[in-house]
Amino acid sequence: MSTTFSPRDVSVLLNGVKISDWSDGNDVIQAKLNADAGSYTMGANGTGVFIANPDQSGTLTLKIKQHSPDNHYLDRLFKQQRSAIKTFIPLTLSIVDLLNDDKVSGLNGYFTTSPDYTRGMGHNAVIWTLVFEQLTITLEKGLAHS
């Protein structure tokens, strides 16, 4: 059975504003948790203890086309955070794969890395990196398995 996916059918909202002008590549939207769910420590007698990790933070990486209006929007938010952290309102994230129903949500997000400025003989993606205090990834079975 084949599966179906289209980057045009992924909705990415940061503070309710749609981000959609993706660069080329297989990883233009990447969300990942920052820590393992826990660790298992084994004792000398062969029994273990599992220590659950309460860290639910995660990192979002977005690759946007060079000269996209999306970069302008993200740059203004980044500059607000850098110049007035006391009044900066942390970011919210909502990602929905409209074909397959996968979802990612994030709360209390901040920019961590300033994007590089690279120009040359080819297109250069602008890479934005954000961290969220809480990131939830929900994977569904997908369109082909409905």
Automatic annotation (TrEMBL):
It holds the Pfam family Phage_Tube_PhiTE. This is Uncharacterized protein. It comes from Mycoavidus cysteinexigens. NCBIfam families: gp105_phage_fam.
